[in-house]
UniProtKB/TrEMBL annotation:
Domain of life: Bacteria
Region named Disordered: 235-256
Protein name (record): Ectoine dioxygenase
GO MF annotations in UniProt: 2-oxoglutarate-dependent dioxygenase activity; iron ion binding
UniProt xrefs under Pfam families: PhyH
C-alpha cells in the first residue's frame, strides 16, 4: 500500500500505478448495482461492440450477439452515484498533487462504464488514449476503477511501462493509430507488458500516452470498470474539437 506521493512517483516513472482499495466495498457495491441495472435495461447512451467491430465483435447490431454492450457512455450524467465518484475529493486530492493544480474531469473522453462480456467482448489492441484527443498539453491522467476482479483471463488491462515517455515514430502505428504488433521495432516494447491483477475497489491511475491493451474475457461473468479522464486546469481542450464539445468539471482538492 504505497502512500500517494510514492504512487505519484511510480505514475511519473512507469506511466501507470495501482492504488489498492481506493474505493470502499460499500461504494463499489453501490456503483456496480447501478451499472448492472443500466446494462440489463440498455439505458442510453450506449456503445455496442458491433459499433467498433474490433476483433471478436459481432458484424453488426443485427447479427448474433449484436447487442452486446461495450460501454455505458456518459457516466457522469447517468446517476448521482457515478457523478459523486467522478468528482470524489480523494481523486481531486491525488490528482491535485500530481498536476500541482486543480484537476478537471473531462465529460467527453472515457466518462463511461467499460464492460467486457464473455461472449462477443472484443479484443483491444495496443494504443495511447491521446490519439484522438485534442488538448493544449498531453499530460492527462485517467482513473480505472475495478468493480470486480480483473486479470488477463477476463480481459484486464495490460500496460507497457515507460511507454508514456517514449518518442515513437508514425510508422510504428497503423492507420487507426494502434501500435503495430507486427513491426519488429515494437517487439521489445510489447515484451515489457504487464497485466496488474485488480480486485474490486482498486484504481489504476494511468497516463494518456501509456500504451495499453486488453484481451477477451474467458470467464463466465461480465467485467465492469468505471473510467474517467482528467486534465490540469491550465490545460484546455482545443476550440472546435470534440474534446471541447462539453464542459469539464473542476474537482475539489480538499475534503468538504
Amino acid at each position: 500500500m504505497l502512500l500517494p506521493d510514492d504512487q505519484i512517483a511510480v505514475l511519473r516513472e512507469q506511466g501507470f500505478v495501482v492504488a489498492r482499495q481506493f474505493a470502499s466495498p460499500e461504494q463499489v457495491a453501490a456503483l456496480r448495482a447501478v451499472a448492472e441495472r443500466h446494462l440489463r435495461d440498455h439505458v442510453a447512451p450506449i456503445e455496442y461492440e458491433a459499433d467498433l467491430r474490433y476483433p471478436g465483435a459481432p458484424e453488426s447490431r443485427a447479427a448474433e450477439g449484436g447487442l452486446t454492450v461495450r460501454r455505458l457512455l456518459g457516466a457522469y450524467g447517468r446517476d448521482p452515484l457515478f457523478a459523486q465518484w467522478a468528482a470524489d475529493a480523494r481523486i481531486g486530492q491525488w490528482l491535485g498533487r500530481y498536476f500541482g493544480e486543480t484537476p478537471v474531469l473531462s465529460t467527453v473522453h472515457h466518462n463511461c462504464v467499460m464492460t467486457k462480456h464473455p461472449a462477443y467482448g472484443s479484443l483491444t489492441g495496443w494504443h495511447q488514449d491521446i490519439r484522438y484527443w485534442s488538448f493544449s498539453d498531453t499530460d492527462l491522467v485517467s482513473t480505472w476503477l475495478a468493480l470486480g476482479p480483473e486479470t488477463r483471463a477476463n480481459g484486464g488491462l495490460s500496460f507497457i511501462p515507460g511507454s508514456h515517455a517514449a518518442a515513437f515514430a508514425p510508422e510504428q502505428f497503423d492507420q487507426q493509430k494502434f501500435f503495430r504488433d507486427d513491426a519488429p521495432q515494437n517487439a521489445e516494447w510489447i515484451a515489457r507488458a504487464v497485466c496488474p491483477e485488480l480486485q474490486a475497489g482498486d484504481v489504476v491511475f494511468f497516463h494518456c500516452r501509456t500504451l495499453h491493451a486488453a484481451q477477451g474475457n474467458a470467464s463466465d461473468r461480465v467485467k465492469l470498470s468505471l473510467v474517467h479522464t482528467y486534465h490540469p486546469q491550465s490545460c484546455h481542450p482545443l476550440p472546435g474539437t470534440r474534446s471541447a464539445s462539453q464542459p469539464g468539471v473542476p474537482l475539489p482538492t480538499r475534503a468538504a
